[in-house]
Design goal:
elongated; 79% helix; 235 residues
Length: 235
């Protein structure tokens, strides 16, 4: 009789709204994630997945949580499961690409960013991340193409101008680099690295006084390399 009563009691609790659904745990997990309570978020997303093993959004959110915790292998595993369950989300591939990049798998990351772009050609973050990797592997022309796409989609993306300027500088296009660094500074007047690199491009063009003024500004903004540039290049 006691077992029957216990079963009846549990059923009544569920009907009264105390039994939480996968969506409930998922929503709580996202709240925890937003508050950077990562361990609690993972617990909630795991409970959602236990209830609904096909809950690809929960796998995606748990993957991102693991990424935030620098558990990149765990993030890759969860992103892969989300993709297995639903391969139509550009964000899943982009997220896995970011995790692979942090783990050091640049080739795998590039592949995932390319897949993300194929699904959604407006995914500017995928273009941006792929452009960063192309800069790292010294494919500067390719990186400029990717940053061009970022800027076409999101014209106020400060870092895209800055990184495109860096790529142009590597290709000895100092005039083009100065234009991009100047736009980056206009969008973010406290962008110390943009002042530093604009100063270097100006010096390459023989504009020493203006370049040293940029180093001075970068130094005032706290850029550690600017002080050395002032000492070495502005005597």
């Amino acid at each position: 009789m006691k077992k029957i009563y216990l079963l009846f009691y549990l059923v009544m609790i569920c009907f009264a709204g105390y039994c939480q659904s996968a969506d409930d745990y998922y929503n709580i997990g996202n709240e925890k994630l937003e508050n950077k309570s990562y361990l609690e978020a993972i617990i909630m997303f795991t409970k959602a997945i236990d209830i609904n093993p096909s809950y690809y959004l929960a796998y995606n959110s748990r993957a991102y949580t693991k990424y935030c915790m620098k558990n990149y292998l765990g993030a890759i595993s969860d992103y892969s499961k989300a993709i297995e369950l639903n391969s139509n989300y550009s964000e899943f591939y982009a997220g896995r690409g970011m995790a692979k990049d942090e783990f050091g798998d640049l080739s795998g990351a590039m592949s995932d960013f390319t897949k993300a772009i194929k699904i959604n050609p407006k995914n500017y973050l995928a273009y941006y991340c792929r452009g960063i990797i192309k800069n790292q592997i010294e494919n500067y022309t390719g990186s400029i193409d990717d940053f061009n796409n970022v800027i076409d989609i999101k014209p106020d993306f400060t870092e895209a101008y800055y990184n495109r300027g860096c790529a142009k500088s590597k290709l000895k296009d100092d005039n083009g680099a100065i234009i991009d660094f100047t736009i980056a500074i206009k969008l973010n007047p406290n962008f110390a690295a943009a002042y530093l690199n604009r100063g270097l491009s100006k010096l390459n063009l023989g504009q020493k006084e203006s370049g040293c003024m940029d180093f001075y500004k970068a130094d005032k903004l706290g850029n550690s390399k600017a002080k050395k540039a002032l000492f070495d290049l502005c005597k």
